[in-house]
Backbone:
């Protein structure tokens, strides 16, 4: 199966956006007015998570659309190994770091950091994080956990999404996605289920399932989308890219509307931008060449670990050195250690988990396999 290295690089860029968004939250007197400029793209953290979900939907769908049938036990075992093993190791590192350096919180800087690592560990906190897929306070130990919780939940039901995509055409599937996101928006308005962490309710899962659907539809129709983009003249290619950039960067503006439903509309605006980025990246030789830069590919390879560990590194550095080192030096140290820790995690947890996943073989067991049908470009 063809591997799209461009998508790896894009995942790495999205991970950097999340990191920069947390550095911005950490920085005293950060000029948030810059958020209304194109520079917001650099620290668009919430948008980057939508990017992750769409890329996950794309990558998870590819084997099915390439005719490689697999049983559900095989699929879910590989998926759990791929996500859960590196996650649990990062969780152990987080717990140990928390337990060793906990001192009541960091209060020298912004409120965002002072609210983290601010209470002693408890059995409930540990068990909630180990279970992962529940609705729990995801911000206490590592604020990125909420997206992993959503990713794991949706991974459990992703084969159902594939079955539906085979049964229905793309417009119908997009309609299903709109319905799911609308249910999430209705929950925001009426409060049927409270989210105990950041966007961690099961109603939120419905909206993020829509993002996986969009990713899967991009994978299903990739050849048609690529050929259509390549037939455009340069002017329309540039216009399309600008639309994608503006949609990705400024969809957050809908939140000025005092309606809780607006955040769901924002996610769909971001999804439009991400979809355009993916098509451009896979269609343009020049963009593809840029994304295949060695650093961007390396950054993409370690992006999951970079995402998992960057806050833990920040918390450790600022807890230890908040009263002894200048702010700028602590930021530089944090960035350096983020890459060191992420590389070690990639080498010693991610690569083994990928290897173990490849060895999973349920061919001896009966099960329904999803196979390629005659024509999926709809």
Residues:
């Amino acid at each position: 199966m063809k591997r799209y290295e461009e998508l790896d690089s894009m995942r790495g860029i999205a991970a950097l956006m999340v990191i920069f968004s947390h550095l911005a939250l950490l920085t005293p007197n950060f000029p948030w007015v810059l958020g209304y400029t194109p520079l917001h793209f650099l620290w668009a953290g919430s948008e980057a998570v939508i990017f992750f979900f769409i890329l996950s939907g794309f990558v998870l769908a590819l084997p099915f659309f390439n005719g490689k049938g697999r049983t559900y036990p095989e699929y879910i075992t590989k998926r759990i190994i791929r996500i859960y093993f590196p996650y649990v190791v990062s969780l152990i590192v987080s717990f140990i770091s928390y337990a060793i350096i906990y001192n009541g919180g960091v209060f020298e800087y912004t409120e965002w950091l002072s609210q983290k690592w601010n209470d002693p560990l408890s059995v409930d906190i540990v068990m909630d994080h180990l279970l992962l897929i529940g609705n729990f306070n995801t911000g206490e130990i590592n604020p990125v956990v909420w997206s992993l919780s959503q990713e794991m939940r949706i991974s459990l039901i992703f084969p159902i999404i594939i079955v539906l995509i085979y049964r229905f055409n793309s417009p119908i599937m997009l309609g299903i996605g709109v319905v799911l996101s609308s249910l999430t928006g209705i929950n925001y308005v009426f409060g049927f289920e409270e989210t105990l962490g950041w966007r961690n309710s099961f109603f939120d899962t419905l909206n993020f399932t829509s993002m996986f659907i969009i990713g899967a539809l991009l994978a299903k129709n990739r050849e048609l989308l690529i050929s259509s983009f390549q037939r455009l003249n340069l002017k329309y290619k540039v216009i399309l890219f600008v639309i994608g950039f503006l949609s990705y960067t400024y969809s957050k503006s809908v939140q000025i509307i005092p309606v809780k439903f607006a955040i769901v509309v924002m996610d769909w605006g971001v999804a439009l931008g991400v979809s355009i980025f993916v098509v451009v990246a896979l269609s343009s030789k020049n963009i593809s060449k840029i994304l295949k830069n060695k650093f961007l590919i390396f950054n993409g390879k370690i992006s999951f670990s970079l995402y998992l560990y960057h806050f833990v590194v920040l918390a450790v550095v600022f807890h230890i050195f908040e009263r002894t080192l200048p702010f700028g030096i602590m930021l530089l140290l944090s960035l350096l250690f983020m890459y060191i820790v992420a590389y070690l995690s990639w080498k010693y947890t991610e690569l083994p988990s990928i290897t173990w996943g490849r060895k999973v073989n349920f061919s001896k067991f009966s099960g329904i396999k999803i196979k390629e049908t005659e024509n999926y470009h709809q």
In short: The chain has one domain: 5-358. The mean pLDDT is 89. The chain is about 70% helix and 0% strand.
